[in-house]
Amino acid sequence: MADRNLVKELKRWATEEFYLPPDILPNDSNLKTLCAGTGKSIWKYIIQHVFHQRNVRIMRGNLQWYKVIQDKELVQTKGQSEAAKRKELQMKIEQLKGEISHLDSQISGTEEQLATQEQYVSQTWAQMEDSQSRELFLQAFRRRCTLNCNLLSDDVQKISSHCQVLEQMEQSVETEVLFDDDSSSSRAGDDLHSQTVAVAQVLRDLKELSEDRVNFYQSLQESELKTQHSATKNLTREQRMAVFQYWLSTAEKVLGSYPPSHILSALQYMAAREQREIQEKVASLDVTRDAAALQFRYESNHLLDISTEESNELPPVKTLLEAAWDEVQQSLVELSQTRSRVLQLKNLLQDRRKEAEEEMSGIFDDLHNETMAFRSAFEVELQCVMQAAARDHIRDRCIQLDQHARNRQEALRSLCSQWQSILEFRELVALRQEQLRGLIK
């Protein structure tokens, strides 16, 4: 309403002060545009302070010059006729109707323009919100992809390290093991020489471990039996625990330094050599004659309780060694079967992977980029599964072989203790024979 009054005042000021005809004046919309914003105060100031030169002179004489002009106009209009007034009123009415229709059209156009602008603003706002949400989703997806890439890179590094360890273990397992000095010396080449040296080191370490353990048990037996054959002092409980812990740490270090196949082969070689030595020693003994002579002399001796233990005598060493050798052969057969089973599982996994890759390639032909990502992830997961399965199988097999090696060590210790008892028995028989000879003389 204030804008309309200002437009009317501006038109009146232009027509009255500068005698401009109403036809050449701009329309109301242009005048509203001129009076919009900061132009409103400017035009108000101009209307109140800018006047025609004649009007300024009149204003000097009378400050209420507008009222004087209106009075003059009233005096002039009184002299006009009724027809002229009617005609003038009709012209004004027509002019007002035209202005009203023009204003209505401008209002409708403005309303349509406002509606289109509001629709455009709403669409722009929706697009902006959509773009912001898309940007947020893209940022979250980018962070997720970065995190997944970091995780995948870590997994790939772990898998590569595991692959290297497994390859080294596989290469060390597939290495030919030679324990015979003659056959190894007959071959030429630096590689075979270095291999023989490494194997000799494995055999030497295992011999040292076995000898240390046998000496420890002998010292324990001597301390329990309170014999005087050894010059060593009796060990206390703390010393025994310290010796046992030292031996255990040394054994763990040796077992971790060499491949299981080399350790198993060295143990088998040591068992076979001990078996040959025991067989040679047993063949050199005349146990029947010594036992018969001892049985004859037991009747009047304080060792008469030995005859009661004949029913509980230990099985022969040959039988124990044959049983141990059969178990070793059976373990080797199981190991070969396990390796063949691992190869079959690897082939089966490769076939399944090929089938899965074919299915995935048939399903995701339209999404090539995603297919490559899924395929790489699938291959990585398959490799992880295969390597985890191989690792678990190798770990279980290593545990079994370790347990088997420990059992073999226990068997060797028992054989050594039996051999020691045989030697003591021979010494006792020889002592009794010397005593009998002395009595006979």
Please tell me about this protein's structure.
The N and C termini lie far apart (158 Å). The longest helix is centred in the N-terminal third of the chain and has 93 residues, at 82-174. This protein has helices at residues 2-17, 28-34, 39-49, 53-61, 65-78, 82-174, 181-186, 190-225, 237-257, 260-284, 287-297, 317-363, 368-440. The protein has three domains: 2-117, no CATH class; 175-258; 270-441, no CATH class. Mean pLDDT is 73; it is low at 55-61, 181-198, 227-232 and 295-312. Helix 10 packs antiparallel against helix 12 (317-363). The protein is mostly helical and 441 residues long.
Secondary-structure blueprint of this entry?
Elements: H1 2-17, H2 28-34, H3 39-49, H4 53-61, H5 65-78, H6 82-174, H7 181-186, H8 190-225, H9 237-257, H10 260-284, H11 287-297, H12 317-363, H13 368-440
Helix pairs in contact: 1-3, 6-13, 8-9, 8-10, 8-13, 10-12, 10-13, 11-13, 12-13
What percentage of amino acids are in beta strands?
under 5%
C-alpha-based Rg, rounded: 58 Å
The helix-and-strand class reads mainly alpha
Spell out the helices and strands N to C: HHHHHHHHHHHHH
The main sheet comes to: none
Task: Give the helix proportion (percent range).
Answer: over 70%
Count of separate structural domains: 3
Question: Mean pLDDT across all residues, rounded?
Answer: 73
User: How many distinct beta strands?
Assistant: 0
Structural descriptors:
441 residues, mainly alpha, 3 domains, 13 helices, rod-shaped, HAUS5, coiled coil, HAUS augmin-like complex, subunit 5
